[in-house]
Amino acid sequence: MEPAQRFSRKRQAIYDALMASHAHPSAEDLYHTLKPHYPDLSLGTVYRNLKSMVAGGDVVCVANVEGKDRFDAHVEPHAHLVCRNCGAVLDLPMTQVISEECARIAEERGLSIDPRSLRLFGLCISCKDRGFPDPIWQ
Ligand SMILES: [Zn+2]
Ligand SMILES: [Zn+2]
Asked: What CATH class has 76-138?
């Protein structure tokens, strides 16, 4: 098989793994998921492919948690909750109202705002249930 085809097969695998996940994995997470199936896969290949998919608009970088970018192949408009305790990134619905409000503020201030980049910080259900205090309020 030609190197170019191997490259695109891995690229498809990275995209499919991202699409199958709702955990907003990091490049490292995807690497560990795919490595058993693609023994010659390198972390650099995962990074390179993610970067080009982000540039092409197929994938969105939705958060940076503890220094690691987190990715989403579900590009329809939605916001994210980042858990301050465990680093989980959860999907939140992006209502028409919030989306329109972002557009209104952008217009008013002469800015460009991507409502998909909206991030809220708090605690996921399991951290909240286990009684972790939200660190910001400590
Ligand atoms: Zn959590
Ligand atoms: Zn998401």
From this structure: alpha beta
